[in-house]
Amino acid sequence: MTVAWVLPHRLKIILCQFTNTYMLNRLLTTLVIALLGLAAIGFPAQPAEAAGCTLTAIVWEGYTDPSFADQFTAKTGCTVKATYAGSSDEMFAKFRAGGGRTYDIISASGDITERLYKAGLVRPIDTSKLDNYNEIFSSFQGGEWNTFDGKPYGVTFAWGPNVLVYNTKVVKPAPTSWDVLFDPKYAGKIALPDNPMTIADVALWLGKADPYDLTDEDLAAVKQKLLELRPNIRKFWTTAGELAELFQSGEVVLAHAWPLTYSQLSKEGFPVGSVSPKGKLTGWTDSWMISKNARNVDAAYKWIDFILSGEGQKGVIEVTNYSGATNLGAEAIGKERAHELFMDDLSLHSQIKMWQSVKNYDQWVQLWNEIRS
Predict the structure, then answer these.
(1) pLDDT exceeds 90 at position 17
(2) Are 247 and 273 within 8 A, CB to CB?
(3) Is residue 40 part of a domain?
(4) For 39, phi and psi rounded to 5 degrees?
């Protein structure tokens, strides 16, 4: 009798515990589902890539400005983490230092695109992954500055000249040539970019036909010209923002500069002028290149395609004052502005001696370091 009574009693206890646990689990499950439903109502859905998608880039200043990079993030859920470089040498060194793993993409100018390719740091571009690729100006597709062994390794998106920027209240009359940099009355008041490629500019001032193919004798002449200019040089600048501050503080009144500095100072209401002396211009054609070891290849393609779009091109142009490279960009900024930036006929592009790889570049670096010191 005792055994017959005890077993059912224990069974009842077990069944009761099981029932209570089951009901509790159901209650918790229902509660979680309800909370998730409320979250879905209260917050908009994010793109699938949003979780942990960070595109790393090493770029020239202005190429990942939040004014348009935030639009890319809103569209894709991917944030852009950028590092600015002050020169192509710095950009190449930092990109190579991580074996191409630190940065997914690089905004390379024509003087290092071939170096990046020969170092095995970048991958060929699959143009089928870029909806806007065919909108790139035809002369920029397959450009010699980013096409190697018949394959595109870069995507052109911006270009422009190195210009003469000056304080209009101090520098009078308005300059028309680079000769003004040598004027004794501006001694200690000019700035040059801290970049060996500036040697090409000096070569042009000396009348050299190809400023990127210089003999030892040519380099000696360039060195002498720079030594003549040295007393007038106040600072060798590394970023457009740094140069803008030098103008605002009054430390410099003339500079060999990027159009970005002119744009930055104009927006601040600073009395600034800019001139592009004909026949004496160097410049750059910039390309997006993807690291061979990129961690976020899909995001890199999406970023490039965005920058080729009207929205992306307009963003870059408004921030930097550089010229764009696509039909969509020309449409986005309007005919008048496109004409000002030579995006309607590209005539200025053909007049500029665009940065390119230099065979004896080590000699250039050595010469430049001697001048800087």
Answers:
(1) no
(2) no
(3) no
(4) -65, -40
User: What count of other Cβ atoms lies within 10 Å of the Cβ of residue 270?
Assistant: 15
Residue numbers of the domain that contains 272: 161-282+359-372
Q: Is the Cβ–Cβ distance between 320 and 263 less than 8 Å?
A: yes
- The pLDDT-based confidence of 118 (bands split at 50, 70, 90) is very high
- Do residues 108 and 280 lie in contact, with contact meaning Cβ atoms separated by under 8 Å? no
Determine the pLDDT at residue 54. 96
Number of H helices and E strands in the chain, helices first, is: 14, 14
Phi then psi for 183, rounded to 5 degrees?
-65, 125
Q: Is residue 25 part of a domain?
A: yes
**Per the omega criterion (within 30 degrees of 0), is the bond before 173 cis?**
yes
Q: pTM of the predicted model, to two decimals?
A: 0.81
The domain that holds 272 is classified in CATH as: 3.40.190.10
Residue 187 CB partners (closer than 8 Å, separation 6+): 231, 232
- Work out how many domains the chain is built from and give that number: 3
What is the spatial distance between Cα 46 and Cα 51, in angstroms, rounded to a whole number?
9
Residue 314 tokens, joined: 């307009």
Rounded Cα distance between 188 and 172, Å, is 17
